[in-house]
Amino acid sequence: MCIFETLKLICMPSHFIKTLTCLTICTFSVALITAQTNKKPKNIILLVGDGMGLSEISSSLYFNDKPSNFLRFNTVGLSMTSSSKELITDSAAGATAFAVGIKTYNGAIGLDENMNPSETIVEHIAKTGIASGLVVTSSVVHATPASFYAHQESRRMYDEIAVDLVHSKLDFFAGGGLQFFQNRIDGQDLLQQLKDRNYEVHTDVLPQKISEKKQAILLAPNGMPKMSENRGNFLTNATMLAIGHLSKNKEGFFLLVEGSQIDWGGHDNDAEYLINEIIDFDKTIGAVLDFAKNNGETLVIVTADHETGGFSLSADGINYNKIIASFATTGHTATMVPVFAQGPGEHLFGGIYQNTNIYTLMKQLFDQK
Fold it and tell me: I need a surface site. Which of 55, 127, 138, 278 has the fewest CB within 10 A?
């Protein structure tokens, strides 16, 4: 800056200097926001709290001895969950909306309402070399995870879904469901078939090391144990193992993580069960957000397929400092569910939209890389 320019600045009224400073800061901020908006994620992690509505999320604030990780999100939207033929969805139609981007009938796994197979996000990104995986606390052939790799008329077709998993594009999966892969009525040894397809198979404990092969981890006959049954840190540890494994892929990755048993606590109208599961899910969200913050190329999305139980938190009579958890039903409800997003592309997830929009946006972000 020359002397004349310096003198002009000194002689300027203070309010003008403040305005000039403010404009400079605003210009910089707009440029920074624009740069962040234009950035696309290399990786997407979708965390689904099955049956998790706003009251379930709120319980993580009131019953957790640590700050809830839901408070770390700046972008929040609302998703409408109805299936194609029913106002109230089930997990199969809800997850198919995320995985395929279509509304379908309750019970459908990766099919449209006319029972035609539709390409899943996992199948789509595999064509461009993007890796994929899933971690769940249910069986790996349960409705939510199945919708990302299988195509079956009914969510109850577990044996057929297991075969679809063996032939899927997944590079990593962890959860329960061992009984569907061995000692089958049709005589197929799906564990051996997984090994033949270059999977390292674990059926006893969660491995501590990342394998050079694909990884298949089946640690329970059906669903994993409840948190109250000493499941421990499986969800967090398996998720971080999956991230470590998938991060080796230079083209990026997609990971589905499901807190499956939040839904089961809702169906049972068991508040303690539900709250234990949501706190475990919250902990896993925190670990994923920590990874994404350090990585800088990962979009984290947290949502639910539907709400279960009509769960509510209310005062104990006139005692407004004591919360009572209660339920309205043992089934699902039609309430909208929140969508949280953090990372490159998060700005797209604000607002109110159909659940199929989550697939559409994920596909758009992967295709624009």
Answer: 127
